[in-house]
Amino acid sequence: xxxxxxxxxxxxxxxxxxxxxxxxxxxxxxxxxxxxxxxxxxxxxxxxxxxxxxxxxxxxxxxxxxxxxxxxxxxxxxxxx
Amino acid sequence: xxxxxxxxxxxxxxxxxxxxxxxxxxxxxxxxxxxxxxxxxxxxxxxxxxxxxxxxxxxxxxxxxxxxxxxxxxxxxxxxxxxxxxxxxxxxxxxxxxxxxxxxxxxxxxxxxxxxxxxxxxxxxxxxxxxxxxxxxxxxxxxxxxxxxxxxxxxxxxxxxxxxxxxxxxxxxxxxxxxxxxxxxxxxxxxxxxxxxxxxxxxxxxxxxxxxxxxxxxxxxxxxxxxxxxxxxxxxxxxxxxxxxxxxxxxxxxxxxxxxxxxxxxxxxxxxxxxxxxxxxxxxxxxxxxxxxxxxxxxxxxxxxxxxxxxxxxxxxxxxxxxxxxxxxxxxxxxxxxxxxxxxxxxxxxxxxxxxxxxxxxxxxxxxxxxxxxxxxxxxxxxxxxxxxxxxxxxxxxxxxxxxxxxxxxxxxxxxxxxxxxxxxxxxxxxxxxxxxxxxxxxxxxxxxxxxxxxxxxxxxxxxxxxxxxxxxxxxxxxxxxxxxxxxxxxxxxxxxxxxxxxxxxxxxxxxxxxxxxxxxxxxxxxxxxxxxxxxxxxxxxxxxxxxxxxxxxxxxxxxxxxxxxxxxxxxxxxxxxxxxxxxxxx
Lengths: 81, 587
Description:
The complex is a heterodimer. By secondary structure, chain A is mainly α. Chain A is 67% helix and 0% strand. Chain A starts with a helix and ends with a helix. The model of chain B has no long low-confidence stretch (mean pLDDT 96).
């Protein structure tokens, strides 16, 4: 597979989480959007993946908002998935 | 083929609560330790633990470790080993205070002591009245614990191998464990890690069930490694279930929903709990509700196109009550069941939560196997701790808050025992020739596969089989059919094919390897459950409804080789106090 595909696989693995809720939500998001994610969204998603699970879940469930505006578009896609 | 090799005093497989606690004990004692984890350690499944850590600190009411010990033994339905249970309950305060000194942000009382919350099954004075024993950090106890332990490990210069998957144990010709073979996901490289001691800390394998609260990473890798190396798996028929997980997802709907008036309905719209528990109805205990739900499904009264779940109705409570008294339930239902509980019922199913069985160990964390007349002979160089191990402190049923306690106590005791072991075993034993042969064969099979079934299909069949045949409602017929089916699934798991042959982050390959481990655990579960002709704790047989201490007060041991069962006695002898004789369990 080409490098882009490897990068997608890396994101897919990093989307394995400690909380089942996050596993389920991110799996749906990846199935829907991974193949067409823009460079900016990919970078933003990488930042989100570095968050602790509970903080990430709070963002996804709308209980908190991201400090960085650049995370907004990809977070919205995750919330809609 | 010669693989590159690295050498450590100790190798720990798994970076969750128990692995980190053991690593810390060793790293702070000055040993060089390597921790292997499939994911970043603070994203281990320990993060999901909310409840707390059970310890008889007595900060709220008078408390004593002996009362905690009694509650744990009774909870275990007398299958727990009383030496290990005494050890754990006596050490509880110490490991909690240590965690406090490491910087764990516990909830506090106004006087500065650690606040303790109430939890089911914990009592004062041998069952007289409830006691508050759970030490927590809000609803993020597991999360806080992982972060505290990880930080401390970094400080102690523990070495982490993140996004590595351990494949197999290496045993020498005398049976001693001398290291592991592991795969780096980023490069696809396979390497040998030679060690004087190896600790398995890989967590549970709850993903064998179709409905499970466990994260996707919980695939029983340590159990698969142990079983392939000839080590038996203990008490694998005992799995703890929660009655109301969202069907098809596994996310829990709190018991509070039924407390507020939510009711369970079958496909005919019947409130079936009235038949099973005329007085308590939907508020009967967890196991009663779970079994009734599963029986309704098994007898064809399940809802939905597959008749595979029941319905949790709460629309009659009204939007106001739901929003006010059950915050979060509506968003969970919308997100994971795609229904709005204000208008429609939530599809729910009994959901696997915790694995009581595992790799047999003593309270030092040493893996023990029958040898000659000794039912518990240590395997030199091998340890197991946490949910992947069976000490056994949980026996047939785990008490809430005892899982986090188990991680801390036995993570520490294993670390201490390894430290001592290293003093008397200063040299690495030689690696056997072909140390990595088994792992390389497994990888070669996948790399060379040209035709075969997809991993996702076989995995789905495995999960369906385990859910249907080894759920909460168990009969001899169901289990016997299940054993046949799961053996077939096991064959298929060993002959899957993957399309992606690349080395870098090949998730298909990882998932195929995980499935091999899961299939081993699934077979151990069904075979052990089919053989145990009694009801004890979480193992409830419709055809053998009573606990049978005369014939079954013993631990199951399942061997992969020949799918053979053996048994060993329960240790009813505590370390210093009198034995708690088996009694009928009434709450």
